[in-house]
Amino acid sequence: MVQALGRSIGIGLALVGLALACGRPAAGSIATSAPAPTDTAVSVPPTPSPPAPRSTPRLTATATRQLETLTLIYSGALSIEDLNTLMLDLRALPGISDVQGGLQDLEVTYDPAQISPQAIIDTIISHGYRVENPG
After folding, report:
1. Is 72 helix (H, G, I), strand (E, B) or coil?
2. CA geometry: angle at 84 spanning 130 and 123, to 5°?
3. If 0-12 CB within 10 Å is exposed, 13-18 middle and 19+ buried, where does residue 127 land?
4. What is the rounded distance in angstroms from the CA atom of residue 109 to the CA atom of residue 95?
5. SS3 state of residue 135
6. Considering the entire predicted model, what is its pTM?
7. Which helix (H) or strand (E) holds 68?
8. Can you give the pLDDT of all 135 residues of the chain as single tens digits?
9. I want to staple 132 with a disulfide (CB 3.0 to 4.6 A). Which of 73, 76, 120, 123 is the partner?
10. Helices (H), 1-135
């Protein structure tokens, strides 16, 4: 019986020691040190926000493609409206980068990997104009 009582006292003392180590008195025990404050502010680091979605990088071939310029003399355009219609239709073709000109000549900047000079000339002819210097 003495042995059992000693074991109970030893377990109780171990619990009191554990409670004191945590800063709290064990239930039914007498605190030997000042009680730990109950309003202790605990600093919790903020939860990091998720990373912003990354956009898919756009790949452009402008730096690597070689553009060419085709200068043409043509006839048949009678007005600025005729010229504007022709220039808009040429710009709508795939591979055309720029179209400049007047009522008698055109300078067409294009990507030869996407359109041929003959396709450009055929578009001008399809509008009813005659190309003076094809190719």
Report:
1. strand
2. 40
3. middle
4. 9
5. coil
6. 0.51
7. strand 68-75
8. 545 444 555 555 455 554 555 555 555 555 555 555 555 556 666 777 766 666 555 544 445 579 999 999 999 888 999 999 999 999 999 999 999 999 899 999 999 999 999 999 999 999 999 998 765
9. 73
10. 2-21, 80-91, 117-126
